[in-house]
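User: Last request for today: this protein with S-adenosylmethionine, please.
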Amino acid sequence: MENLKTFEKGTDLTAKTLAGLENVLADELRALGAGSVEPGNRVVLFRGDDELMYKANYLYRTALRILKPIGIFTVKNEQELYEKVKRINWPALFDVGKTFVVSSSVFHSSMTNSLYVALKTKDAIADSFREKAGKRPYVSKDNAEMHIDVHISKDECTISLDSSGDSLHKRGYRVGVDKAPLNEVLAAGMIKLSGWNKEGDFIDPMCGSGTIPIEAGMEAMHIPSGYYRKHFSFENWKDFDPELFAKIKKEADEKICEYDNPIIASDKSYKAFGIARSNLRSAGLHKDIMLLNKPFAKVNAESGKGILMFNPPYGLRLEEDDLIELYKHIGDELKNRFQGYEAWIITANMEVAKFIGLRPSRKIILYNGPLESRFIKFEMYRGSKKAKANNLSEK
Ligand SMILES: C[S@@+](CC[C@H](N)C(=O)[O-])C[C@H]1O[C@@H](n2cnc3c(N)ncnc32)[C@H](O)[C@@H]1O
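Assistant: Here's the final one, the structure of the complex with S-adenosylmethionine:
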């Protein structure tokens, strides 16, 4: 078949992630036995079979979705795209009774309209079914059972089945959100980036909806990232192996364990506290995470060592002066009451972050949604009122 490479089982897979988490995800993949792991820009390419693809969906904390390429070819225009997509044997991949949706990302000199690219792909899939099976599947934008991904870069087009469906940050435990909740994948990535050693306390003193402490609890207790999710798109594929997936889930779930060190979540807002409580209950972690409705000034260290991780308000609602006061207050609390701890703060407001007044030992660029942010580490050494001066490193 000229210019059209189709993939068989046990082949390349693509994991999508957030900018800044590529290496963390690559480590997760390697740890589970993936081969040829190659981090890129918000993606990690790897080799693996269906078992690894199921595991990637069920276990990896820092992947947003796992794509399985089924066709790769050169493409000059939409008509050529249509013809080549139609050549793929779609009825072999999913049943005509399943609904589908196409998403696209296009970086091409003449094909610039990604919606039109998605439309041509959808038509080609429908026509392929009509010709080969006599009927066409329906499109569903919101609740599709099959998710098809088209990626065009220069003149190379990759057609993939999206094995996840809903983005993997939708863990399934969140029943409510307060203002500016962190993406669950970002929170999980921050915990991994911090190198949390699970000694002493884990404290989020401004927990909002509770995302960071819940992800910390899941990490500490080895709760799979997909544990609360009801569904993955690969369960609708024709070649889905339910026994294999059940075995993967059983083995992973058997590793869930107790965690004895304190995980403390607090927020001064009663509304946020209530939402966090609902989310903790939904995750079944309300007995494992200590939830308080207190301002930071009243949150006490339990073990005398450990880690604080939080995202303070960064300015969309607070006046600049209040924000400066808040960040000064954070610095004072850390310096005076958390000696022996390390703190990791993510903020999109680099100007006010300076008012923390402690010297960062590390700064990592991450994106909180579209907002470029810094994930900043401070080390509060015992016996010194000042955080020890360290070489500032930014990556
Ligand atoms: C950006 S939100 C945190 C979002 C949270 N990480 C999540 O994923 O939902 C910031 C939170 O800090 C809380 N906050 C602000 N100042 C505080 C203080 N002095 N003590 C405790 N909480 C505070 C706010 O009530 C708000 O819920």
